[in-house]
Amino acid sequence: MECAPYDLSIDSGGDRFPVCGPRLLLSWKPPRGWSDQAGYELQARIDGAGRPPVTASSARHLFVDWPWRPLRSGEAVDWRVRVHGADGTSGWSPWHAFEAGLLAEDWSAAWISPWEEEVPEPGSRPAYLLAGRFEVGTEVAAARLYSTALGGYEAFVNGERAGTAELAPGSTSYSDTLYAQAADVTAALRPGGNRVEILLSDGWYRGRSGAWRKPAKWGTTTAARLELHIRYTDGSTAVVRTGPGWTSRVGSITRADLMDGQTTDLTAAGAAEHPVRLDAVTAPPITWSPAPPVRRVEQRAPISVTRLANGAHIVDFGQNASGWIALRDLGPAGTRTVIDHGEHLDSGGDLTTAHLDSWSGPDGPSVRFVQRDEVISSGEPGQVFEPRHTVHGFRYARLTRGDVPLDPSGIVMRVVHTDLRRTGTFTCSDPDLDRLHDAAVWSFRGNAVDVPTDCPTRERLGWTGDYQVFAPTAARLYDVAGFSRKWLRSVRDDQLADGRIANVSPDHNRLKAHDDPMSNGITGSAGWGDAIVLVPWEMYRTYGDRAVLAENWDAMTRWVEFALTTARTARHPSRIERSAEPLPHEEYIWDGSFHWGEWLEPKKRAADGTLIDPVQNDPMAWYTADKGEVGTAYLFRSAHTLAAIARVLGRAADAERYAALAERVRAAWRREFLDADGRVSAGTQAGYVRALAFGLVPDRLRARAAGHLVALIEEAGGHLGTGFLSTADLLPVLADTGHADVAYALLFQRTSPSWLGMLDRGATTIWEDWDGVDADGTATASLNHYSKGAVVRFLHTHTLGLRQSPGSVAWESFVVAPVLTPSITWARGTFDGPQGTIAVDWRVADGELAISVDVPACSTAEIRFPDGTVLRGGAGPLSGRRPLTAPPTGGTGATAAF
Predict the structure, then answer these.
(1) What's the fold here for domain 296-418?
(2) pLDDT of residue 613
(3) Which parts of the sequence belong to the Bacterial alpha-L-rhamnosidase N-terminal domain (predicted)?
């Protein structure tokens, strides 16, 4: 094969083909085995016409600015690249094709809305069929359908579905951002009369959201907009648009709620048609998403189908996932099949979802959790029920249809989530760790449904804290560059005027526009709002994307300035009681506003053995507790990171200012929360982990602080005690401070709280609570929350030993330094990063450690053996072996990154 660049891409998503706006960024991977790139040459064809070639003396091959004129609507582009360097001049890459979408200023179609004489209650609204007719001449060369909606939609041309994207147009902050979709529908057109249809439901726009199932506040009227651009072989064109003449009627989907479920009545007579309403909505300009779409990515057959005494069938798919069921056996005409979905079975083998009910105390509201689809059969052969206007989190389904028989072979789970490209793999000699890794991967998959959510069941919201915790792990498992950029746009859209970041984005409550005292009082928390700084930084470090830093810069600074202002102007009552006047260092203690804190640490047990929920048990005490240690730690981390971002963006004055502020915050944290013996005042495992991971502890006290952490673990009987924010850093901190034996003991712990304890109780995804399923088999909370699954990054960075070198960006330089334990005799894994695929394989045999590494182009690598031996190399294979003369423990110092 000719030596040439490969994996060409642009910074945009698209269904079946990439679609972008007028300007874009180009990326490619250097030729395999290439040692360096000193320059490149670009060629492009726009609508078949060649553009002047562009050459540059540059080592840059990631996110290169589009060098030609801005693109116009619908233009088709082919481009390719070749590079030169010390290895000579490469061959040309294959051509890479993409298109410009229909740009905002060129949309001329009207917004059309369904005719609704009376708007049903949220959760019980139907899907509407909006339809138009048009004529097509002969000899069609190409046809592109551009469409979007305020609501969830599917588009059809002559009954053929356009594209493969699901749950379009996706979840965004609809008041500010709306994405369109493009599909090639050439093959669906026919000479003469044609019909185009839009199936429109509430979706994320008007549907119910969150644990309390409140209607989203983006708008009260759904609408769709569509343009079909037809090009004939003689060069003439035609455009079909939504507008006058389109009709609206209720279709066979009589109920469509994104969370609760869908009802389809295949016996329903055709409803009366009405004219659509024109331009009854206000929408933001249409743009094009940087993320890949949601798709049906996999299907799973049941591993068992069991009939209960009451006649219901329990279907077990063997894996907790996100999606829906496709059902082929609908029974005779009039048969009603009810499908309930859930994660857990009760002691009698029946489906239970009681652990997902939402309850706010004895005097507060409660919401019973439901995921229910229904279908009424028409009896026609060949029909399939597949509810694509809802999505569920489930492993089990209960199918109820009375005495009508059920064919198990006609039941399939469709796994539905954003179609992310897998980049990281891991396996080792211990099958339990492989199972843990798989569970974490499935948890992320189930929560990567257009936005990073907390769980695919009870809430399905884009909690900022969840993704802040998991983003470094997500970036090892999948290419999440576009997925993250899309979500971050919603985070920016939802930012409040005072700089606070919403707890969830897209913010269905629209706190920015609708005052809600309850939501307002719990918005602006450390560890949650810091996602606006920490997630873009992780994307830059992993992918080398400066644009993600630049486009979030204003939002980052507004967030950090809010935190600094709050630290300066608000004090926790405990400090006011200590001193009426603030002590000088308190200017940098962020304690006077709401923080979630170290959310979901292992719960204590009452005398009767029941778990004590600190929030439900005494909500006021939890709400008013001093969480200044957490707030100040994150204020330091974000200010310090902001200084680094400013340096990357060439903002020298900002870099100097935020670096100085970060040091003042760190000094204040040390004075307030750290004593001379390295003890953190909170006295919790989480407090020590955070202090050590963030670099808050001086070097001279790190060993002592780590010793105090180990002592707390020993006091807990060898169990972890961390919660939401610090669990991801627990094992790396222990290994990097010389306590790898303790880290692995926690990893292999089987009694609760522990990761393997989850697996032993049947988990196939990571639980929200450490005791998500009690010893008696009772589920207590969501069984698919990915945050605690961030532990699997330790398997990549420490067990496998693969991590970026300090200061490296986009994996230009990396280190392989396995942290060994006697119970693991081999590990191997890969990471398909921006430079190419890194492959690592190590094994212990006959008293020796052998390590082999494949180093991708334009990269450098180091292998570090436990005895201190270091091997260095560039592109190509790198390997060595050393006797195990040193104990199979040790540290790397990697977590002291600040």
Answers:
(1) Jelly Rolls (2.60.120)
(2) 85
(3) 139-268
